[in-house]
Amino acid sequence: MAEAAEIQGTRSAPACRWFRHTATLLLGVLLVFGLVQLPAAPAAHADNGGSRTVGVAVDSVTPVAPKQGDTLTISGTVTNHGKSTIFGAHVALRVGPQIGGRSDIDDLGQRTGYSPGTDGNEVGGNHRQKIDKLLPGVSRDFTLSVPVKDLDLGRDGVYQLGVSLSGQTSDQQYERVLGIQRTVLPWQPSATEGKKTQVTFMWPLISATHLTARTESDQQQTPIFPNDDLAKELAPGGRLYQLVTLGKSLPITWVIDPDLLAAVEAMTKSYGIDAPEGKSTPGKGQAVAKQWLYKLQDAVAGHQVVALPFGDPDLASLAHRGKDVSGILSHLQSATELASTTVETILGVKPRTDFAWPVDGAVDTSIVDVATSAGAHNVIARSDSLRDPAGTPYTPSAARQIGSGNTAVVADARLSTVFQGDMLRAHDASLAVQRFLAQSLLINKQAPDDERSIVVAPQRMPTTSQAQAMATAIGALSDGRWTQPRDLGDAAKAKPDASANQQVPGPGSYPGSLRSQELTTEAFQEIQRTQNALDSFKVILTSQDRVVTPFGSAIMREMSTSWRGDRRGAADFRNAVQSYLDQLTRTVNLISKSDMTLSGRSATIPVSVHNGLLQRIDGLKLVLKSSQPNRLKVDESQDVKIEGGRSQTVKFETRANANGPVQVTAQLYTDDGEPYGAPVKFTVHVTSITPMVLLVIAGGVLLLVLAGLRIYLQRKRSAARGAEGDGPDGDEGDTGDSGPDDGRPEQPGDPGPDTGSQNSDPSGSGEKVDR
């Protein structure tokens, strides 16, 4: 079929050319005589697909919420994104229709091209600005100033506001709209006649994890930071500096991670920065840390302060991955208790610790259970998680009673997320501010006779540009035309709307995108292993706070929300904490021992224990075990107490019963019977129990027996001679002069003259037995 079409097309080509030539000639004749006319150029404001040729950026709207008598000033840039030069162009303001509902603002942001029916006409008069010839890729600044009365705004509400560029291009030489940018303009020149909306703006003061458990080996325990990035955030122009500077003059509720305060407070003294090969260099941020803390103490005065649990633990990760790991949830209670102490000590204010803030306000029943288990009876949720029934005619108040005495404080999703984008460009920041104000006015217009309490929970760690945009928006509400500021605590106590949803969704509703960022179950198991190792280590310490405090804080940081999306960083942090704990544990150790020879039936075996810590250790027992107790028996255990930086030698009594090598194992144990550290094994060679020694010992015993027998026989003979020499009258017989000495003793029982020489060395030569 394709081949037939191709052949047919080839054969008809001459006829087609003849037809085109004839038609062209006929059209020319008709034009000459004026019988037909070419189509007119498109209208100046029609969209023929070219309204995206020029990019229009609205960098500022002043004032953001004008009053009667104000002059509205709009500035920005136009950029030629096309391939043709633009000439005869001008920038003008267009007022569109009033926006009816909150979702219409969302729809407005999705429109790009010019629409004659909805974008309105140009504001008349001399309110245009001409633009010089605009080459491809070239930008021009513009500023439009229009008295508000010339905008012809009607009743109070939110109006669509457009800034358009109209002109001609070198390839299409007729005027048309080549680019447009839309924003919104809240219009309420005076205070509302109804009830004002109560607005709570949470101002988060949270940072990434900066401190580990590592310190210098000195009495002051000088902390070591992985880097000095925190000093940059605290310095003028830094993110945390801007948050404190801007927040001071705003009607906000401070929401603070106490771990940040602890890290900054540590920087006010001497601190180190991690360097290669386990070394460190001095930190240089003491001045900025002191200045920042002073500014913060001044800024929070008179404001409500909410302290998150220490380290800002990831509640969703705990609920979904950690709660089944034994002991993990106890850290949340500890973090809550430490939060209050830290904030009160450093800032001098008593914080609220009864609020929990899951990531992005996403909640389910398991998250609420975990969050409230540590005493936080108010859970900050968001309206895109705890959704209201379809068709609810207005935005309900934030507070919802969710059972068991707990309250869900449901932040408005549109107001809370409007500043999440990249606010580095003035165009994006300006658009966000206008949308925030417009949304807040529309909330008020939904039910002007009902007082409602709205909460704004922005991103956890706003950038500097985001914070500046937030501050601009909050400041614009300060005149109280349709809103009033409210503390978070008061918002939680507000009367709930009867039509509001009070049912917390189940775990299956949790967003998969957020679940994929959670800490894993394996991560929580590693965290608990570190805690168990710390528990085993601390029992031998006499100054436990020097170890328990920094490691306990580090374990809380291992569960921080700041690790979301950074599993590698979280794993590296956990490994660093565990490695440092292992290093400290190994500083209390048995000193290696070489094999030894035992010379004698009994002797002592010395075993040395070293304490490399700067504190005294106690609560250890050193146990020595023989592999062959029948050959070599040893005393089993002795208590060990060693001052810091010292070594102690413990001596064990032994008793040898037979020759040969015997393996001996030395092991430290805690008082609860758990082994501590690695054992030390060595061999004892028993060599001094020889046959000759045994023969000498036996000979000595035999000599003693013989000596005793000789004495007995001598006494018996002496007694017999005395009986023979007695006369009839009982007198002893007189033998006259004695004959020659026959060697017999003069007194009964006296030893013979040879006894001394026989016992001169009863032990034999070479005996080393300790008796």
From TrEMBL:
<feature type="region of interest" description="Disordered">
    <location>
        <begin position="102"/>
        <end position="126"/>
    </location>
</feature>
<protein>
    <submittedName>
        <fullName>Uncharacterized protein</fullName>
    </submittedName>
</protein>
<feature type="region of interest" description="Disordered">
    <location>
        <begin position="718"/>
        <end position="771"/>
    </location>
</feature>
<feature type="compositionally biased region" description="Acidic residues">
    <location>
        <begin position="726"/>
        <end position="735"/>
    </location>
</feature>
<keyword id="KW-1133">Transmembrane helix</keyword>
<dbReference type="Pfam" id="PF19516">
    <property type="entry name" value="DUF6049"/>
</dbReference>
<dbReference type="InterPro" id="IPR046112">
    <property type="entry name" value="DUF6049"/>
</dbReference>
<feature type="transmembrane region" description="Helical">
    <location>
        <begin position="692"/>
        <end position="713"/>
    </location>
</feature>
<keyword id="KW-0812">Transmembrane</keyword>
<keyword id="KW-0472">Membrane</keyword>
<feature type="region of interest" description="Disordered">
    <location>
        <begin position="479"/>
        <end position="514"/>
    </location>
</feature>
<feature type="compositionally biased region" description="Basic and acidic residues">
    <location>
        <begin position="487"/>
        <end position="496"/>
    </location>
</feature>
